[in-house]
Amino acid sequence: MSSLTDIDKRLLKEVADLHEIPQGAYNIRKNGEGLSRKTTDNIDIITKTDKPGIDVIVKAGTKNESVHIPVILSQGMEDLVYNTFEIGEDADVTIVAGCGIHNGTGEKAGHDGVHEFFLRRGSRMKYVEKHYGEGNGKGQRILNPTTIIEVGEDATAEIEMLQMKGVDFAKRDTIVRLHKNARLIVTERLLTYLKQEAVSIITVELLGEGSSAQVISRSVAQNESKQVFHLNMRGHCECKGHIQCDSIIMHNAQVSAIPEISALDEGAELIHEAAIGRIASEQLMKLMSLGLTESQAEETILQGFLK
User: Fold this and answer.
1) CA separation for the pair 147, 218 (Å, rounded)
2) Distance CA 5, CA 74 (A)
3) For residue 144, how far is the Cα from the chain centroid?
4) pLDDT digits (tens), the chain, 307 positions
5) Rounded Cα gap, residues 171 and 200, in angstroms
6) Domain extent listing, the chain
7) Could you tell me if 172 and 161 are in contact, meaning their C-beta atoms sit under 8 angstroms apart?
8) Would 225 disulfide with which of 88, 151, 196, 238, CB 3.0-4.6 Å?
């Protein structure tokens, strides 16, 4: 990664766990332009001709391969990208996305990414999306991703969404449609502090018989930050779904959790749970009795909660 600055390398480490050029296919985007790309025999990456973005095509039967598509911003600007992913039948692939922003200016730095996925019959995809922000500038760091996933018959989508501090405002909109015997697993982890705001909207449509979905969201809100969660699950047939939303609230923060389940067929089995509360005093006391200070005990509890 000789063409990357130290700031670029740090951003890539945070959003994609990259310390060097990855194995497999990748596309690195910096400040609104493609920086580096590699394809493989089974994974092709094509630049769109009608709008900014790429098409990622994973051949049918591909096994145990990965695609890294991080975006990094190191200046004040607004970036917009449209990416489409075609996951072939019986393929098994890991896709690592995410955006890192370093803003040392007084201008707003923002990235809006629209990602659309098509998982064909029997395929399996793990999708990891991380948000990270840093920099001493007064300009805001803003991220607004939209993710649309079509999970075909007998296919499985596993989604991990992570945001830890650094982002001033984020609105994440995720829409998933599940067909016959399709499966979805979503894990969301979020931490906000100062006056940051985060909105997460997850909508799951269980359309095919035998489909199932599990959505788990865990968050910590500190200082005067605000979080809003809209978790919607609709069962249109014989299916199973579970929503769980747990939040720790601290200082003067505000958290709203709005889980909604709709059974539109007598065979739909749907469950939702939501809990918001502060750190239990008995947990702090137990750790402090082992020699930790109050701040160390608090940090240990928060790290364990967000794992």
Assistant:
1) 19
2) 10
3) 11
4) 446 788 888 888 888 887 666 778 999 999 999 989 999 999 999 999 999 999 999 999 999 999 999 999 988 899 999 999 999 999 999 999 989 999 988 899 999 999 999 999 999 999 999 999 999 888 999 999 999 999 999 999 999 999 988 999 999 999 999 999 999 999 999 999 999 999 999 999 999 999 999 999 999 999 999 999 999 999 999 999 999 999 999 999 999 999 899 999 999 999 999 999 999 888 888 888 888 998 998 889 888 988 8
5) 6
6) 1-134, 145-281
7) yes
8) 196
**Residue type for 86, please?**
E
Strand partners, 254: 226
157 token code pair: 């989508």
Q: What are phi and psi of 50, to 5 degrees?
A: -100, -15
Chain length of the chain:
307
